[in-house]
Amino acid sequence: MCSSDLPARRPSNRRDLILEAAIDLFHESGYPATGVDDIGKAVDVSGPAIYRHFSSKEEILLEAIRLAADEVHEANQNARALGSDPMSVLEGYVRAYGRVAIERSALISVWTSEARHLSSARRSPMTKRLRAWSDEWTDELRSARPDLSEDQAGILVTGAIGLITATATASRGDDVRLADRITSMAMATLAAPIL
Fold first, then answer.
1. DSSP label of 115
2. Do residues 14 and 60 make contact, with C-beta atoms less than 8 angstroms apart?
3. Label partner for 130 (CA 20 to 30 A): which of 116, 137, 140, 193?
4. Alpha carbon distance 185, 32 (integer Å)
5. Of 168, 170, 166, 3, residue with least CA distance to 75
6. What is the Cα–Cα distance from 56 to 134, expressed in whole angstroms?
7. CB 41: neighbour CB atoms within 10 A?
8. pLDDT, tens digit, 9 for 90 and up, residues 71-124
9. Pick from 134, 179, 180, 178: nearest CA to 160
């Protein structure tokens, strides 16, 4: 499926505009270096006006992390619904996450690199959500490859997810060939023998 087959996500209100601007700024400059005034300037409002929509800069980051988790979860659900056996479900997971990571590279990059700035109380539920997502992949891989222990499958899944994340977020632009290459590389990782 080509990325043009997916509806583009467009901010629908001021809160969404603020969130998307913050995601871009967190991606470009990092969370610590981005101030509320910078975010306000990006959406042409005063910094303090941001507080009508978010209680703090940390809440904006938390909302960005939730958004990333929601988009990845939705992609997983769609892939699961289309799969007919464990390997096709896995390929669907890989392809769907690759597509999200390419199309929303700034968001995924913020999720993977800036979440550490959340307080532990706020980070913990997001960590559990990420673990649940990778556990879904691990379960499918173990169904497809019963020769693997849970730890072995987990290592392969972590490698595949890391490969997808690093490759997609380092790329520039939405390249269908890149999505195909990422899928091939990640599926080869999941099929790799454990020594």
1. G
2. no
3. 193
4. 34
5. 3
6. 30
7. 14
8. 999 998 998 899 899 999 999 999 999 999 999 999 999 998 999 999 999 988
9. 134
